[in-house]
Amino acid sequence: MTDTARLSLNLITVDHWSLREAVERCAAAGIEWVAPWRHQYEDAAAAAQIISDAGLRVSSLCRGGFFTAPGADEDNRRAVEEAAALGAPVLVLVCGPPVDRDLAAARATIAAGIERLLPYAAEHGVRLGIEPLHPMMVGERSAIVSLGEALTLARRLGAGVIVDAYHVFWDPELEPLLAGASGLIAGFHVSDWLVPTTDLLAGRGLMGDGIIDLPRIARLVDAAGYDGPIEVEVINPALAAHDDLLAVIVARF
Amino acid sequence: MTDTARLSLNLITVDHWSLREAVERCAAAGIEWVAPWRHQYEDAAAAAQIISDAGLRVSSLCRGGFFTAPGADEDNRRAVEEAAALGAPVLVLVCGPPVDRDLAAARATIAAGIERLLPYAAEHGVRLGIEPLHPMMVGERSAIVSLGEALTLARRLGAGVIVDAYHVFWDPELEPLLAGASGLIAGFHVSDWLVPTTDLLAGRGLMGDGIIDLPRIARLVDAAGYDGPIEVEVINPALAAHDDLLAVIVARF
To answer: What is the ipTM of this complex?
Structure first.
């Protein structure tokens, strides 16, 4: 798809390894970037040290968001501080599900929450990346489920968007939306949609094992001017059984 | 939500019953409409007789479509004939998944297939209803996964659309799309999105058990001028355990 210098491993893909093990294995496999999740460390400064000791850089921190939950503002400020400590240029936002069937209210709460967080993120040199999730995740994870809505929010508030091929590939408006997304793309994630898909959260596939035309989406993202790291983010517990997972990921990339 | 005179039972909801049993139970429960699936009868004329003998009418036939599969044209002409034999004013189209990762090609194949079928449907007095499915069904059932695309197709070709709340409720554009759908709505289906949802096909809930704001969507569909039957279509094998399923459906409706 592109030069492996842009390959970043989103560490949820190898959540069965410790942060130290994941980072050391990435370095050995020639992977130069990682994207940790907040549950994968206790202390962000110590995690930053582990990552830089291995000669790696951080492409993003997963995740802030869940603006519809109590205490979201405080938790999101901590997430921004951790992103800054890790040297992550981007904090990925998974925006949170609706409460009481009211999608419009959830979307307004999310917009207001992002707006409140933005100045704090800017002070810390961290960009906020609104990630639209697949519409099947609307009930449990995110009321923001289309790239169009994420881009509209990002434009209005001055944030970025995360384009995850798994979440947006189905969209008939993908091409015009990405054509208009110049300057707004804060991250690009890849994995594949398996047929059949039997698990709504953890049923993702390695690139090439499913039906997403990833080269096409990569071209559209490139054409929109995004030239940063590309995160491989495959949530599937079956990956833990792979003997040489990172070599496969590098090869598929 | 509305007068039960408009309640139609989509018979996939009670696929554990024979057609005759389903129809007799509907009549006893005061349900005046049903929507059979093609696998639920061997002979459409005999099925029509069973339904009319019970004093019921047919709201639609499920389903034609799968335009990306071999032999689709012939099978769809048979589906049109069966719809006419059943007195179904509408044939619901589930359009079929992409082949070889190419969503754009699948969408073109689908449009061409509908266009070829339309004259035959018109001769038989059957309206074609394009049903956009939830985007999680793109890999196995339908490349048409947004109401916007279905409406654009319906407008261009002279077909109708089926608005199934389960498939479209997540869409941030739902309100403007329905506001512009006057004359295009050929059917309205209801069920609910459960939290959590653990099955991509058969994990639907009875109205009121999930997070869809059905009264809001019913108002939008009403405002677009649709005044035909409203099909309750709940695909969930757990429903077979309900003692008095039809009474519950009537009450929830």
So the answer is: 0.94
* Predicted structure pTM score: 0.96
Chain B partners of A135 at a C-beta cutoff of 8 Å? 134-136, 170-171
Tally Cβ neighbours within 10 Å of residue A130: 28
Q: List the single residue in A with minimal CA-CA distance to B108.
A: A172
Are the beta carbons of B169 and A196 separated by less than 8 Å?
no
Please give the Cα distance from A3 to A79 (Å, whole number).
Answer: 30
Convert the pLDDT of each residue in A226-238 to its tens digit: 999 999 999 999 9
For residues B50 and B19, give the distance between their C-alpha atoms in angstroms, rounded to a whole number: 8
Q: Is the peptide bond before A141 cis (omega within 30 degrees of 0)?
A: no
Contact of B28 with B4, CB cutoff 8 Å: no
Chain-centre distance for alpha carbon B37: 10
Indicate the residue type of B138. Answer: V
Residues of A engaging B, defined by a Cβ cutoff of 8 Å: 97-98, 101-103, 107, 134-136, 138-140, 145-146, 148-149, 169-173, 193-198, 200, 210-213
How far, in Å, CA of A206 to CA of A232, rounded?
9
User: Which residues on neighbouring strands pair with residue B91, listed in sequence order?
Assistant: B61, B128
